[in-house]
Amino acid sequence: MIISLETSLAIENFINNICFITLFITMLFYWIQVGFGEFDFQKNYFNFGFISMCCTNFLLFFSLILRWKSSQHFPLSNFYESLIFLSWSLTCIHLIIQFVTKTNWIGCITAPTILFVNGFASFYLPAQLQKIGPLIPALKSNWLMMHVTVMLVSYAALISGCLLAIAFLIIYSFTKIKTTDIPKTFILSTKTINSRLIFETQTNKILQNLDNFSYRIIGLGFPFLTIGILSGAVWANEAWGSYWSWDPKETWALITWLIFAIYLHTRFIRGWSGIKSSIIASLGFIVVWICYLGVNLLGKGLHSYGWFT
């Protein structure tokens, strides 16, 4: 069955709208669950949030396949396609984290981010950046699938890990303020002491999980980032005769790599954890978005899409 380009784009637009609505409802569901203190779902694992995120993952995957069929090339040739692929990668990371940790609070962190990326691609990105176009000669290479896919998967993993680190800092700061609200001269009742102990125990458990899983996910994303940079260098040599040209994207990719190399070095060699590591990861979060969004949209270099210029 042959589908026209107009029909394909209409179906794709419909799918993206459904994804946005589903993600918004999913985000609200996670927030409500955590608001009522339901942090885990051991007894009722396949809850609405997990199922709806699975549906979103499938719809985004179908949208990418449809785009691939319509364009006759791997759907990573422009900024819009990379955003959709990043959204899909983030849903994959979310599902893996939730499957392993069996906790609901992960969705409070990841769902808004996926919603933002999907909404930015579908509703805010200019129409000219969403159109299907022919590949330029340099992109007609098998390295397109290898390099761009690995880089976006690394971004998804690093962003997810950094979000957990940011959540660690927010919860830690809130807990510190909470515990200093009560004057030292105030005599606490037994009930109050027990409540505080329960609160601190639960909070410490959450903080420990956030720190550990942030470390693991960033540790997963870093090798992908390394492979992505190396494959990009090989591709650049084939296309332009130079492994490294200090293109803005290359420079910021190197900065991103150095930030997370420092993060992993300080954790593995120096034994850092908690606040110090989370601060470095939070810096890495900003750098990743500059590398991905900022450089691409400023209209400078081989990787840009020239929105602002």
TrEMBL record:
Ranges for domain Cytochrome c assembly protein come to 76-303
Job of this protein:
Required during biogenesis of c-type cytochromes (cytochrome c6 and cytochrome f) at the step of heme attachment.
| UniProt record, GO biological process | cytochrome complex assembly
Query: According to its UniProt record, what is one Pfam family this protein matches?
Result: Cytochrom_C_asm
- Gene Ontology molecular function terms on file: heme binding
GO annotations of cellular component type: chloroplast thylakoid membrane; plasma membrane
Query: Of which family is this protein a member?
Result: Belongs to the CcmF/CycK/Ccl1/NrfE/CcsA family.
Q: TM spans, by residue?
A: 14-32, 44-66, 78-97, 104-125, 145-174, 213-236, 251-268, 280-299
Name listed for the protein in its UniProt record: Cytochrome c biogenesis protein CcsA
Highest taxon, organism lineage:
Eukaryota
Where does the protein end up? Membrane; Plastid, Chloroplast thylakoid membrane
Describe, as the record does, how this protein assembles with itself and its partners. May interact with Ccs1.
